[in-house]
Amino acid sequence: AGVPVITNATVRFISVQTNGFGGAGTRIFSTRKAIATAKRVLPDGSLQDAELHGTTTESFVNGFAVFSDLTLYNVGTFNLIFTSTEYGVSIRDEFRGTKVRANAFQTLSVLRHPGNATAAVSLSSQVQVELLDAYSNRLTCEYGECPSSLFGYPSSVERRGWSLAPQSDLVVTARVQALGASAEEGASDTCTARSADPDCGCGDHVAFSSRGMGVFECISVGAAAPAYVLSLSAGASVVHTHPFTIKPGKL
Q: What share of the chain is helix, strand, coil (3-state, %, to 5)?
């Protein structure tokens, strides 16, 4: 994604000459323009309009139109379509099966935020975070072609017939922080001596991402406070969840 899918794509449309154009034969376009568009191929085989970037209109020069920077920002399989118009008649050709995968890891995005909880009790909702590239594509299976089952797939690429996008299994770290009175910038680490229990506490937790998504199932905070956040990090990316409240536990 974000890299030209094809460089120096050359298009030549040829039309059949008839009487009035100098007799039978062929004529190569030399003064018209060619336009490039894209269609996403959906899992059921249907097509959906897709946004194609770069220089999508080129003039024919000596019978050829050359596209040098056609770029797609989304993951998937696409058909590139080239069209031109000759004397009111639209002519088209297409290049099928262009596959685009996610670019390098850029940032985290929180899918599910924590809910309020009672001190020493696990947060009321699992926290989920996804790994994205610079174009908001999740780093999941190559070209987005994942099987339906989440688990149980063969570890060998040759056996399963598809592969994972690079960096789709990065480790994500979660840390509980107290939120300042008015701004997230005032957050400070408060985990020291506040863990509720060693198995489900507020110390640093890690999630091993699978197909570009990390899930934190057991996080608790031992001290009641009106506003905490989770600081989530992977590589150079750090994001924060929405604030949540920890209520006092039973005496």
A: 5, 45, 50
Percent of the chain with pLDDT over 70: 72
The secondary structure of residue 180, as a DSSP letter, is P
Residues 78 and 42: their CA atoms lie apart, in Å, by: 9
Report the distance separating Cα 174 and Cα 221, nearest Å.
13
Q: How far apart are CA 166 and CA 128, in angstroms?
A: 20
**How far is Cα 94 from Cα 82, in angstroms, rounded to an integer?**
6
Q: Which DSSP category does 164 fall into?
A: B
Query: Exposed, middle or buried by CB within 10 Å (0-12, 13-18, 19+), for 49?
Result: exposed
Integer Cα distance of 220 and 226 in angstroms: 14
pTM of the model: 0.75
Which helix (H) or strand (E) segment holds residue 84: the answer is: strand 76-86
Helix (H, G, I), strand (E, B) or coil at 186: helix
What six digits make up the tokens of 174? 């979660």
Per-residue model confidence (pLDDT) at position 108: 93
Give residues with Cβ within 8 angstroms of 173, minimum separation 6: 204, 205, 206, 232, 233, 234
What's the pLDDT tens digit per position in 59-84? 888 778 899 999 999 988 999 999 88
